[in-house]
Amino acid sequence: MAKASVYIEPTIVSYLTARPTRDALKAARQRITRAWWTKQRPLFDCYVSKPVLEEIVCGEAAMAAKRLDAVRDMPTLAVSDLATGIAAEILRRGYLPPKAATDALHVAVAAASGMEFLLTWNCTHIANAQIEKMMMALCSARGLAFPVVCTPEQLMGV
Questions:
Q1: Contact 9, 106 (CB under 8 A)
Q2: Residues ≥6 apart with Cβ < 8 Å to 135
Q3: Residue 105 to residue 125: CA distance in whole angstroms
Q4: Torsion angle defined by CA atoms of residues 62, 9, 74 and 150, in that order, rounded to the nearest 10 degrees
Q5: 3-class DSSP state of 149
Q6: Which residues partner with 6 through β-bridges?
Q7: Residue 91 near residue 101 (C-beta atoms within 8 A)
Q8: Residue 127 near residue 151 (C-beta atoms within 8 A)
């Protein structure tokens, strides 16, 4: 049986590799992300994209290297013309604000590449049911299946 495909969005890699924090929510997300990475990730075919790589190399060099190392063996999805068009349409329709252009591109690459899941902790622009519904309709109108958008906690398995 083939493994399901998962697009790994940058917030996942950030929480995975982040230094410990006293912030209760962030600490919980770190624990959940690390548990998913260890226990569940091997059960999926995981992918990143060029925009993911561009985001995770930003910031402190040592932490950027840690983030890059975490995804080193994952295949990189292309940013196709279809994905670029979907992202532009998401922004043109106002589903996401211009400052979230990269978030639109993550969604578009995942959809255009046929990913089954999009794993994220970005609950403002990506894992947002109201926005997701509109983006799903846009992709459906283009004949694309929309990935299940979820957090590591939601993709923890049984």
A1: yes
A2: 90, 95, 107, 111, 146
A3: 11
A4: 130
A5: strand
A6: 46, 117
A7: yes
A8: yes
Residue 19 amino acid letter: R
Instruction: Name the helix (H) or strand (E) containing 7.
Output: strand 4-8
- Residue 106 clears pLDDT 70, i.e. is over it: yes
For the chain, what's the residue count? 158
Query: Which one, of 33, 39, 35, lies nearest residue 11 by Cα?
Result: 33
| DSSP classification of residue 145 | P
Indicate the residue type of 32: I
Fold of 4-150: Rossmann fold (3.40.50)
Phi, psi of 29 (to 5 degrees): -65, -35
Token representation of residue 38: 């260890």
pLDDT at 67: 97
Q: What is the pTM of this model?
A: 0.95
pLDDT at 2 over 90: no
What is the Rg, in whole angstroms, of the alpha carbon atoms belonging to the chain? 15
Q: What is the DSSP string of 19-45?
A: PP-S-HHHHHHHHHHHHHHHHTGGGEE
Contact 59, 13 (CB under 8 A): no
Q: What is the DSSP string of 98-127?
A: GGGHHHHHHHHHHHHTT-SEEE---TTTTS
CA angle 24, 29, 30 (to 5 degrees): 95
